[in-house]
Specification:
Number of strands: 26
Shape: elongated
Number of helices: 4
């Protein structure tokens, strides 16, 4: 079973606040969903997050690692952002992620830079304030110019069928929010959401499998909307009812960006089934079915280049072997763990204890062949110059045992 991580090519926060609709934050260490109070009025203005991963890297994983040219049915893709802090949240938060339908530039400005620069994506523009290419906005038929001024939802843009953008705000005269804030595809297969309740971990884990599948259909099969769409990245926002309510803040959510100087940048996580189970090559007597075992990682190089694909093999033998009459030692017997979800692996950061790859009954099963139990790790998806720790979880008739015997390795550049 396999996990593979991609890190962003570009990301940014865009703000609808009147003082910041032309401000780029592409160089910030933080991405945030916040509703800021106006300086000259009592309204609250929302922000949104834009994030994109390289088309070539997505295609390489799908074609070269998973195989098949398009995203297969047994694969999953999740968009994960790590929470920095949250302030004044309501009891329930519902976030949405959509596929962006127009290209945009990241820029290098930061929120606190003085003077502020507009050299990348903003609420109003998708490139910069010099080229000033606005996000595509329009009016609903027959509504009139006031709909543009006050930011009504717009649909069916020229050359962007099935997209929408902007906000309908709920204050008098249609609302104070300037049109803009991105354009994205709507409908089934083009969006995902995640709900957070009071006390929940606020890290995101959006299931974006359907969206990435549409990217792959466009890339490999030249499919057009609605089967395929070009990869312009993802837009993360609060739900419409929260954004459009300009009388309340609903709190603040902050996440690490790709520019963070930590081990927590956003990532696109690919998971797929690649287990090898040649159970026909060994009989029941060679399987670790019950009891406690000594488990040793016997081909760990300890240090791996970040481009390596490492195969970890385990030597398994009974901790308390049954006494038998034999011409060979029981202690040299190499068993294999049970096939299936009864035996899983996990990877943790050795310093922070962050769970990089969890025990996952669908995607971290051990493989088995005529030599041993094993699994593969793609080092390119791990942060370099870090130590990692391997854990093995084995379920059998005697219960669940976690084998954690200082199985360490390091990833280097």
């Amino acid at each position: 079973m396999a996990y593979y991580f991609l890190f962003p090519e570009i990301d940014s926060t865009i703000y609808s606040h009147p003082d910041r609709i032309n401000m780029n934050t592409g160089g910030d260490e933080i991405l945030e969903l916040v509703k800021e109070r106006g300086n000259t009025d009592q309204y609250y203005y929302p922000s949104r997050i834009t994030i994109k991963f390289k088309e070539e890297e997505i295609a390489s994983i799908i074609n070269d690692k998973i195989g098949g040219g398009v995203l297969v049915d047994n694969a999953k893709v999740n968009l994960q952002l790590t929470s920095v802090q949250a302030k004044n949240l309501t009891s329930t938060q519902l976030l949405e992620v959509y596929a962006i339908s127009q290209s945009w530039n990241e820029g290098t400005n930061k929120y606190l830079n003085l003077p502020s620069a507009s050299n990348g994506v903003t609420w109003k523009f998708r490139d910069n304030s010099i080229a000033a290419t606005a996000w595509n906005t329009s009016t609903l038929g027959g509504v009139g110019n006031s709909a543009v001024e006050y930011g009504f939802i717009v649909e069916n843009y020229e050359n962007a069928v099935g997209t929408t953008g902007s906000i309908v705000s709920s204050s008098d005269n249609g609302g104070p929010i300037t049109p803009g804030g991105g354009v994205w595809y709507t409908g089934s297969g083009f969006q995902s959401n995640q709900q957070f309740l009071n006390g929940d971990n606020l890290d995101t884990n959006f299931d974006v499998t359907d969206i990435v599948a549409k990217f792959s259909q466009s890339y490999f099969n030249d499919a057009q909307y609605p089967t395929g769409i070009s990869n312009q990245g993802f837009l993360i926002k609060q739900i419409d009812s929260v954004e459009s309510n300009v009388s309340s803040s609903f709190g603040e959510l902050q996440y690490f960006s790709q520019d963070t100087h930590t081990i927590y940048p956003p990532k696109l996580v690919f998971k797929w089934e690649d287990a090898v189970n040649l159970s026909n090559l060994y009989d029941t007597g060679s399987r670790a079915l019950s009891g406690s075992f000594n488990v040793s990682l016997y081909n760990n190089k300890k240090e791996y280049n970040q481009n390596d694909e490492a195969l970890f093999r385990f030597h398994v033998r009974p901790k308390y072997p049954t006494r038998t009459f034999s011409t060979s030692s029981n202690y040299i017997q190499n068993l294999r763990f049970k096939v299936g979800a009864d035996c899983l692996y996990s990877i943790r950061d050795a310093h922070s204890e962050e769970e990089i790859i969890p025990f996952d009954k669908d995607y971290t099963k051990l493989s088995h062949d005529e030599e041993s139990s094993f699994f593969k790790i793609y080092m390119n998806g791990l942060q370099p110059e870090r130590y990692y720790r391997i854990l093995i979880k084995h379920s059998n008739s005697d219960g669940i045992i976690i084998y954690d015997d200082d199985y360490f390795f390091k990833v280097v550049r």
